[in-house]
Amino acid sequence: MNNQGKIPKTMKALVVYDKNHCCFESAYPSPVCGPNDIIIKTEACGICAGDVKCRNGAPSYWGSEQEETWVKTPFIPGHEFFGRIVEIGENVEGYQLGERVTAEQIVPCNECRFCKNGQYWMCQPHHIFGFQSSNNGGMAEYV
Length: 143
Known about the structure:
With 143 residues, this protein is mainly beta. The chain has helices spanning 49-55, 59-62, 113-116, and strands spanning 10-18, 21-29, 38-45, 81-88, 100-102, 106-107, 127-128.
């Protein structure tokens, strides 16, 4: 079965470089599909209150004297997105090229007591698409 779409080496994306610097990139590197990944061609992406708080520099995102920085730059914002599958990793089953999907916004650690209990939405150290460079969001052509 052919699990490979035709993804260009670069894509259009909104990229956040720091609290006061985000910009449109017309040739940002496209994501690479790992063996356990799915690459989605974004069809739409919403803007959430969390995106606005991050953009406005909230300490819970960018840190303060009392809090560590949660965001990891550079990153592509947008954790509420959907699109069509254009590439599927070799270990992924149950999906087909061209299928319309959305991603769960939480990226659980699979190690904390909540994850081990099957309550991944309560994951304490979780990440969310669109706030860390390792979990880019949907304000780009591909996720």
